[in-house]
Specification:
The protein has 715 residues and is an alpha/beta fold. The protein folds into 3 domains: 299 residues, Rossmann fold, CATH 3.40.50.970; 184 residues, Thiamin diphosphate (ThDP)-binding fold, Pyr/PP domains (Rossmann fold, 3-Layer(aba) Sandwich), CATH 3.40.50.970; 127 residues, Rossmann fold, CATH 3.40.50. The chain is 38% helix and 14% strand. α7 links the parallel β3 and β4. The chain is elongated.
Length: 715
């Protein structure tokens, strides 16, 4: 059906308004281009509101940015550093904007922003160190409000939104400026970050360095929009198209957006039209060869540095002698930077362990000792809480609610966010009543966008808050996995402790309540396999409250998985006083002598049922609740196996490369001499979880656990 047919079929009394590009009146994007310097250096309009010293500083930063880029490219070619992403030709749209920021503002760069990072204050030797393959290079100096460059495309955009939100929550008037490329605008991160910023009217400026190419893909293959800037309108805020090779225009447009955000005017999207003169990276040169020679020649005429030089000469601020002075100073600075880089000794090999967590876990201590000879020291026995009694008949959902309430009362930095967590109280009512008690600034709903929830978590945490993010269901965490894997888990390590996200990522998991497809998953292995995360799964209301209380205090990020099948049962007394169960400590919940059954979460039910039923078979089963599956408390597990000589591991997730395999492998490595029978695993099958009618055939049952235990005992 054509548009005309649609309008005709609608009837004369019900004609819909159809939005199209024509509504934006953009037929010639160049008519919307904000430009202050023509390619020949002629100023358009009145003099910029910049002092002579400020103009000279811009020029010095442009020159050094270009020189650094050339030298880094050469060093990469010579293999003195690794793969490098050149930014030649894009200096103006990096240097201009960062000079528009004020003290206290934040800069969130992308990987091609060397000139911007240097102009903002990042030491040149550090940048070389990073591209040379040393994490210390992204250890941003204290006092410099800059996040590390992001390698995954556009993933930094939600961080900036979360950071801006955190600073506003704390009463600061700072603005966050974040950058991506034209290719990044095709990512979900771009959409979700801008949408979130628009909904919450955040003080953040989104910059897009439209350099016309995303590796080898031209800009017109990224979007059909006539401009990228106009996309801002769909998110409810302003967009600006700027000549990105004009440092004055780039500065002024950014200054306008930053000042507007500081006044409470909300976000702005700025498209800086520029050009990537070099290849995508030094690891490949094909992308550069795909450019038409006439295209490159045309953009050469718009060179941001020569354009600005011509303007400065007309102002009497630059001549041949002063240009030579600037060039010589830049060269000397670069020589010193390269010398400092070359003189930096390699870090001690054992430092690879130092920044994964706030302190080394028992597993890391053991690995370091085994391969590097560093003594692990004695194991620390973390005490169990002694609190007892309390509120009767509490289920897991209410115990979690108690822990969240107490955590928010104890620390005003704790904020809860996610889908339907505010007035609705969450799908499973875990956050019920918290919005009324603590207000919409501390308990708030987000758009239906899990990726941005993960990214906002990063920004909030770096910004000084303690975020508690809720995903409605287990599988809904997977769209956010890039953020969790690439940033939540790695930020401490890749910044050598400069930025250390903490907080709790919560979601219900597992089968047993017969929901729709993809609402019954057990994805714990994904998270447990990710260094930098700790993964906690309670099985009782008492443990749920104590573990979540600890998670809220933990300096490391916690993935907290709640067995949805157990939300309502069992019920027990839960103390209303503050108590904490140590993260990383398992518990023997039933003593036995013949076989050890290790389980966690919802699988504690069939494990305990089987242990009870085994009594009739004259078998004494010891049951261990892992509670934390990363790091696993092997001291408790091995102690039990050494006593019983047999092991059955139970989990609901598929068997292949599951938690049970890791437990079995470790027991085989460290306690093989104690085993009287092969280790048995009782798990879900290596298939998608069936829908409701066949679901019970998938979930490990009491009978399956009993069968495995009896086979082990009779071996």
């Amino acid at each position: 059906m054509t548009e005309a047919d649609f309008l005709k079929a609608s009837g004369s009394d019900a004609v819909p308004r159809i939005f199209s590009e024509n509504d934006f009146k953009i037929t010639k994007p160049e008519e919307f281009l904000y430009q202050r310097l023509t390619p020949d250096g002629t100023l358009k309009g009145k003099d910029p509101n910049l002092s002579p010293d400020a103009l000279r500083r811009l020029y010095e930063q442009l020159v050094f940015g270009r020189l650094f880029d050339d030298k880094a490219t050469n060093l990469s070619t010579l293999r003195e550093i690794g793969t490098y992403a050149p930014g030649k030709g894009q200096e103006a749209c990096q240097v201009g904007p960062v000079n528009a920021l004020e003290k206290g503002d934040w800069y969130v760069p992308m990987y091609r922003d060397s000139a911007g990072m240097l102009a903002f204050g990042m030491p040149a030797p550090k940048l070389l160190l990073y591209w040379g393959g040393d994490e210390r290079g992204m250890q941003v100096p204290d006092g410099l409000n800059m996040l590390p460059l992001a390698v995954p495309v556009a993933t930094q955009l939600p961080h900036a939104a979360g950071l801006a939100l955190a600073k506003r929550m704390q009463g600061e008037k700072s603005v966050t400026f974040v950058v991506t490329g034209d290719g990044g605008t095709s990512k979900a991160d771009f959409h979700e970050a801008l949408n979130f910023a628009g909904v919450y009217d955040l003080p953040v400026v989104f910059g897009v360095e439209n350099n016309q190419w995303a590796l080898s893909v031209k800009r017109n293959a990224q979007t059909a929009s006539k401009t990228i800037a106009q996309k801002a309108v769909a998110y409810g805020f302003e967009g600006i198209l700027v000549d990105g090779n004009d440092v004055i225009a780039s500065y002024e447009a950014t200054k306008y957006a930053v000042d507007r955000a500081r006044r409470g005017g909300g976000p702005t999207l700025i498209e800086y039209s520029t050009y990537r003169m070099g290849p995508h990276t030094t690891a490949e040169l094909v992308s550069n060869k795909l450019k038409a020679p006439e295209e490159v020649a045309e953009w050469e005429k718009r060179n941001p540095i020569t354009r600005f030089e011509k303007y400065l000469r007309t102002r009497g601020l630059l001549d041949d002698r002063s240009k030579e002075t600037v060039t010589e100073a830049a060269q000397n600075r670069m020589v010193d930077a390269i010398a400092a880089y070359r003189a930096t000794p390699a870090a001690a090999p054992t430092t690879i362990f130092d920044f994964t967590y706030s302190s080394l876990t028992p597993n890391l201590l053991a690995e370091r000792a085994e391969y590097f000879g560093v003594e692990a020291g004695p194991a620390v026995d973390l005490p169990e809480p002694t609190a007892s009694g309390g509120k009767p008949g509490v289920n897991i959902r209410n115990a979690l609610n108690m822990a969240l309430r107490e955590g928010m009362q104890r620390d005003d930095k704790v904020v809860i966010f996610g889908e339907d967590v505010a007035k609705n109280g969450g799908v499973f009512q875990v956050t019920r009543g918290l919005s009324d008690e603590f207000g919409p600034d501390r308990v708030f709903d987000t758009p239906l966008a899990e990726l941005s929830i993960g990214g906002i978590f990063v920004g909030l945490s770096i910004g000084g808050m303690v975020p508690v993010a809720e995903f409605q269901f287990d599988n809904f965490s997977l769209p956010a996995f890039d953020q969790i894997f690439s940033h939540v888990a790695r930020m401490r390590n890749r910044t050598r402790g400069r930025f250390s996200p903490r907080g709790v990522i919560r979601f219900p998991y597992g089968a047993g309540i017969r929901p729709p497809e993809l609402h019954s998953e057990s994805p714990e292995a994904y998270f447990a396999h990710t260094p930098g995360l700790k993964v906690v799964i309670p099985s009782t209301p008492y443990d749920a409250k104590g573990l979540l209380a600890s998670a809220l205090m933990e300096p490391d990020p916690i993935v907290f998985m709640e067995p949805k099948k157990l939300y309502d049962s069992p019920k027990m007394d839960v103390p209303e006083e503050d108590y904490r169960i140590p993260i990383g400590k398992a518990k023997v919940v039933r003593e036995g002598t013949d076989v050890t059954i290790v389980a966690y979460g919802a699988m504690m039910v069939p494990a305990l049922q089987a242990a009870e039923a085994l009594v009739e078979k004259s078998v004494s089963a010891e049951v261990v609740d892992l509670r934390t599956i990363s790091p696993i408390d092997y001291v408790t597990v091995l102690g039990s196996v050494q006593k019983t000589g047999r092991l059955v591991v139970v989990h609901e997730a598929p068997r292949n490369v599951g938690i049970g395999a890791e437990v079995a492998a470790t027991v085989a490595e460290r306690a093989l001499d104690y085993l009287k029978a092969p280790i048995k695993r009782v798990t879900g099958f290596d298939i998608p979880i069936p829908l409701a009618r066949l679901e019970d055939n998938y979930i490990p049952s009491k009978d399956r656990v009993m069968k495995a235990a009896l086979e082990s005992v009779s071996y």
